[in-house]
């Protein structure tokens, strides 16, 4: 089966398409800082949204994988005037809806809705920044959780591998 053409509405975020891999750093006022590896894949099926899957794993001081960390999946929907809606779900019982915009190869997203199951940890808001810098995907994530205000949590630099 032939791969469908990218939907024209996705033009502002088409630079995300593909598989990205790299490493980053994390921390939060309630936890110790850590290094992690990550793989993100953005795909499409010809409709006006991107599919999204991210997997992370803890790295030791030598860069070896220690154990899985977080995973999330969802959809990135491009809207008119370079606006975005992103729906993400987490196996930890959290669902987030982000709204934001694309300016050239920079994407800024803020949570509009956060829902969580009764067993999920307390999490109230998120802010994400993505950008294409010298061909690499750079991103940073701030979260408000566990009684803390919006604070730096994770950031990474990923290279396109496919």
From TrEMBL:
Its cofactor is heme b. This is Peroxynitrite isomerase. Keywords: Heme, Iron, Isomerase, Metal-binding. Belongs to the nitrobindin family. Pathway: Nitrogen metabolism. Coiled coil: none annotated. Residues 10-160 form the THAP4-like heme-binding domain. Binds 1 heme b group per subunit, that coordinates a highly solvent-exposed Fe(III) atom. It holds the Pfam family THAP4_heme-bd.
